[in-house]
Amino acid sequence: MEIFEWVIILLLGAALLSALAARLSLPYPSLLALGGAGLAFLPVGPEWSLDPRLALTLFVAPVLLDAAYDSSPRDLLRNWRTLIGLALFAVIVSTISVAVLVKWLVPDMSWPVAIALGAIVAPPDAAAASAVLRKLPMPHRLRMVLEGESLINDASALLIYRFAIVAAMTGGMETAKFFPELLITVVGSLALGGGAGFLFQRFMRHIFKDVPTAVISQFAMTFGLWTLAEYLGLSGILTIVANAMIVARFGRLNTAARMRVPTFAVWETVVFVLNAFAFMLIGMQIGPIWERLPPETRSGSLLTAVAVLACVVSVRFAWIFAYSIIVRALRLDPTKRGVRMADTLKGSAVLSWAGMRGIVTLAAAFAIPLTLVDGTPFPYRDLILLCAFVTVLGTLVIQGLTLGPLILALKLPSDDPVATEVSWARADVYAAGLAAIASDSSDEAEQVRREYQMRQPANAGEEKPLDELPGNSLRRAVLDAARNRSDQLRITGKIGDEAFRTLEAELDWSELGAGGLRD
User: Fold this and answer.
1) What's the farthest any 2 CA atoms get from each other in the chain?
2) pLDDT tens digit sequence for 46-82
């Protein structure tokens, strides 16, 4: 069957599985991965292998940008201790633990190769976390921690992975070079991503005047920036995260509502399609991996892979519970003061069980070179691929399918701070908007005031072109003042980015209804 026909089949299958997941209140990545694994063993199934560089660029870059764009710097800063612990130290501990375990199970494996395997399976994935967590009734702070962790832990793991692969290829690496190169990579990636985001959002409005060209330029910018970062030896992940946060912070001022509303709709659709393909392709990789393993080593390799899966899950549990107990005992985290230990332990259980791995883990495994510098095959490459696949599929299926029931069973205290912030901020920003026309005593101004005070549609009178309706200029004045006020509330940290985006969407639709066709 031709590739195009299989693409259509996979798209339809992904849509059906996603609909089934929604019907059963299950995370769709888990069902998609299972569907892909089942497809891999069909005699007529497609035999597609992931190109590692293409997989990271195509599947991770736009999904990561979307997740970073939606992140809240205020909430990330509030949880910085937990995030650093998970994204850096937990990754290091997981990497070392897996390396020690595999070195014990496979004594002939060198330490650089074992460390590379540990770095591959250590980090939970941004795409997997975002796709799973957004569908679950999780307390706000836990979701912020998990989504924030998934934005940066891939970068720390892939940096360790990069140095381990170099050491395996060359037979060793000078330790003195590690930290200087690490510093250069981090600083350079943040500078490249932040600078590109600042320039792009500043000039985009003046260059791209219609939605199609603007959307195409955004995707081209995302893929191009990732490729450039990797070409320069920097971290594509950190670069994209920095870029998205800068654009999210300052891009609204340079984007009209008529551009933003359809652009967001396109991005939401494309990200879903990429997620669907990524998770189905993850499942489809088991066939080629299993066939490449010699029959006499398959059982031992599978046991090693299952041991690696158990190791990464257990280490995450141990790290999070130890961290939570120590932090609470020392009262280092003010957000946990006054919280019962039982609730803290319940939250730790959810954080521990939410470590799904995804496309980054599998793509990093496939990126391992086929041969060493001397031309000999890279040692234990197929075993590493199997371990990566079992870890990804195991966490997506076992943890992904049981995370929702676990949250419900633990009966965590429910909260919705975003709805609270939106409620009072809505009144605040519309009051600021109405204040902008307070001195206008015309009938049209009074009509606009009633409209925004009562949130009821006003009588538009005789039919006229949308931009010529009575009071539209006043409506836009109200909306401009309301937008400025919502910006102030976000900048000062009185509301988070989620509440801000909810208000922004409301104001966008109001602007479009008021003839918002301005550039």
Assistant:
1) 88
2) 777 667 677 778 877 887 788 788 777 777 888 888 8
Identify the pLDDT of residue 134: 65
Compute CA distances 430 → 399, 424, 476, whole Å. 43, 10, 12
Place of tokens 């594509």: 236
Please tell me the distance from the alpha carbon of residue 280 to that of residue 271, in angstroms, as a whole number: 14
Please state, in angstroms and rounded to a whole number, the distance separating the CA atoms of residues 518 and 504. 17
Looking at residue 303, its pLDDT comes to: 94
Structure-token pair, residue 396 = 């997506």
Residue whose C-alpha is closest to residue 122's, from 145, 101, 97: 97
Residue 135 per-residue DSSP state: T
Nearest-angstrom CA–CA distance, 420 and 89 = 34
Buried b (16+ CB within 10 A) or exposed e, 130-139: bbbbebbebb
Strand, helix or coil for residue 255: coil
Tokens of 39: 């497809």
Closest listed residue to residue 344, CA positions, set 418, 410, 400: 410
The count of other CB atoms within 10 Å of the CB of residue 106 is 18
Alpha-carbon separation of residue 337 from 85, 318, 481 (angstroms): 19, 22, 38
The conformation of residue 293, written as its DSSP 8-state character, comes to S
Two tokens, residue 66: 């979307």
SS3 506: helix
What's the predicted TM-score (pTM) here?
A: 0.75
Q: How far apart are CA 331 and CA 369, in angstroms?
A: 47
Q: What would the DSSP string read from start to end of 289-311? A: HHHHS-GGGHHHHHHHHHHHHHH
Query: Pick from 467, 445, 468: which is nearest to 458 by CA?
Result: 445
Q: Which domains does the chain have, with CATH numbers?
A: 3-410 (1.20.1530.20), 417-513 (no CATH)
- Taken in order 352, 358, 363, 368, the sign of the CA dihedral is positive
Please return the burial class of 494, using the count of CB atoms within 10 Å of its CB with bins 0-12, 13-18 and 19+: middle
What tokens does 399 get? 């943890």
**What pLDDT digit, counting tens, does each position of 410-444 carry?**
877 666 677 777 777 877 887 887 788 888 888 77
d(CA 36, CA 281): 6
149 pLDDT more than 50: yes
Q: How far is CA 127 from the centre of its chain?
A: 5
Q: Which residues pair with 377 in a beta bridge?
A: 371
CA distances from 316 to 94, 320, 346, 390, 438 (A): 7, 6, 15, 17, 57
Q: Give yes or no for a contact between 433 and 514, defined as CB atoms under 8 angstroms apart.
A: no
φ and ψ at 136, to 5 degrees? -115, 145
Q: Give residue 114's pLDDT.
A: 94
Secondary structure E strands in 399-463? none
Cβ neighbors of 219 (< 8 A, separation 6 or more) are 62, 270
Three-state SS string across 319-388, please?
A: HHHHHHHHHHHHCCCHHHCCCCHHHHHHHHHHHHHCCCCCHHHHHHHHCCCCECCCCCECCCHHHHHHHH
